[in-house]
Amino acid sequence: MAILGIVGSLLPSIANLALISIPINEAKIAFNRMFEFTSIEKEKEEGVSIDEIKSVSLTNLSFRFAGRSELFSNVNIKIEKGKLTAIVGESGSGKSTIGQILQRFYNFEKGTITVNNKYQLSKIELQSYRKLIGVVPQGIIIFNGNVIDNILLGATETTENIISFLTEYGFEAYFNQLPQGLATIVGEEGINLSWGQKQIIALARVLYKKPQFLILDEATSAMDRNTENFSMALLDKIKPNCAIFFISHRLNTLKKIADTIYVLENGTLSTTGNHEELMETTNFYSEYWQD
């Protein structure tokens, strides 16, 4: 009985010792993330100032995350004003990473990125470059405030001008469906929005900026068919004044609007062309339409 009593008294302590490993492992992960953050080099901000983007060319681009195998190599992509350039491929193939490289969030390992057939991307003044680009990322953030607040993001604009913009681009019909229209409170303190509704707000937000280079990362992935058709028609409308880079795995949206489609698979670009040209060979894109 004495032995059983001793064992019974020790069990809670043994259990606590076993649980110690959990916070230790969590602390190790947090430390590693802090180390990665503090080791990030400061962005290079100085460089040549530009006031327009006519083209962006990726030549023999290769990339790997630190300590990992090469994600992709020998990537050659030409993005031009007046055209919608798309890239497709399996999840994890590196499509979104290319979009982040184009935003200068990551440094690539090999190759070059040239803007306007003249300037190396790394040699351009960071602020002047980012002023000219617009991005709809996969992870859309909706802030506490009304719909207009989430479009302007702190910019000063008259109510008449913002309504004129929304009407011109066709957004007003979508926002009028909300309980209080443009005055509807969204974010954590407001109504729950579907992911498709968030994407519409994000699209209005980026187009209000009137970018010359637009990067869209799965920007229509959660939209219903009518909303997606509206969005694609809108991209076709702005295309003459904007270079568009469209990252997507919803291939049906690209058939009519994409001027050039790049197929990223097995760590490189396997083929490129428009819909008709890609359907002539066996690749990730054509296999989708044959299923």
From TrEMBL:
Keywords: ATP-binding, Membrane, Nucleotide-binding, Transmembrane, Transmembrane helix
GO molecular function: ABC-type oligopeptide transporter activity; ATP binding; ATP hydrolysis activity
Cellular-component GO terms for this entry: plasma membrane
Main location: membrane
InterPro entries: AAA+_ATPase (IPR003593), ABC1_TM_sf (IPR036640), ABC_transporter-like_ATP-bd (IPR003439), P-loop_NTPase (IPR027417), Type_1_exporter (IPR039421)
Cross-referenced SMART domains: AAA (SM00382)
Protein name: ABC transporter
Compartment annotation: Cell membrane
Organism: Flavobacterium segetis
Lineage top rank: taxon: Bacteria
Residues annotated as domain ABC transporter: 56-291
Pfam families referenced in this protein's UniProt entry, alphabetically: ABC_tran (PF00005)
Record's bilayer topology term: Multi-pass membrane protein
